[in-house]
Design a protein that fits this description.
Number of helices: 6
Radius of gyration: 13 Å
Structural class: mainly alpha
Length: about 100
Amino acid sequence: MARHTFSFDGGEELTTMGAGWFVSYSYYQHLDRTHRNWNRISTAASRSSVYHRTTNMHNYWLQQVLYMNDDNLNKNTLGLSSSSIKEMAKKLLAKNANNKLDK
């Protein structure tokens, strides 16, 4: 089966990380250091590497997550619902609107 890749700027990298993982890790990095769902998967270290080299895309990707299909977001293995992922993305975007996300 062919790999689904997000069809927007940086989609290949976001696909590599996973949208749910990306939001979870961003939330940990910028809002709540006790949030550790992102670390429930064995590939967290390699995904973290992609995350840190794509910081210029993060705000854009957070916006894209808000429009993603809930059923697809619910397929994550992080124990997060699509509504939780989108709520975290909204909080991250609000922080970014008030002051740039720390890099």
